[in-house]
Design goal:
The chain is mostly helical. It has helices spanning about 1-10, 15-55, 55-90, 90-95, 100-115, 120-125. The relative contact order is 0.17.
Length: about 120
């Protein structure tokens, strides 16, 4: 997170490195989304089977897992979108002294997500 802060403050900012990390983060988000989607679909089918067998309590636990996986899928989609935006508009950070509002939102959201998602090393750099 320190390197992101340095980039925001204009210290040692390298456009090529930001674009490369954004590209890596986009591909990592796609992989994580696929993994989460598979988990979600398995949990959803488990819910159906448990309800057919009459195990409502266990089905409720699985429904909670489905909800958590869907929330993570939504978060990963947002991270992927923010990385696309950062990759496309990173050159504005070198040209302008003021950061556009949409980039501020994207960067601050990525910084927040970096502290919350442990299996996303590209956000830590």
């Amino acid at each position: 997170m320190g390197k992101i802060l340095d980039a925001l403050l204009g210290r040692n900012f390298k456009l090529s490195k930001v674009k490369a990390l954004a590209t890596l983060a986009i591909s990592r988000a796609a992989v994580l989304k696929n993994q989460r989607y598979v988990r979600c679909s398995h949990a959803r089918s488990d819910v159906v089977q448990l309800l057919n067998l009459g195990h409502e309590e266990r089905a409720l636990i699985r429904v909670q897992l489905v909800t958590e996986e869907k929330n993570m899928l939504d978060a990963l989609a947002m991270i992927e979108d923010y990385c696309h935006l950062l990759k496309q508009r990173a050159s504005q950070l070198t040209r302008n002294t003021d950061c556009p509002d949409e980039l501020k939102e994207a960067i601050s959201s990525l910084i927040f997500a970096s502290s919350r998602i442990g299996d996303f090393p590209e956000l830590q750099r």
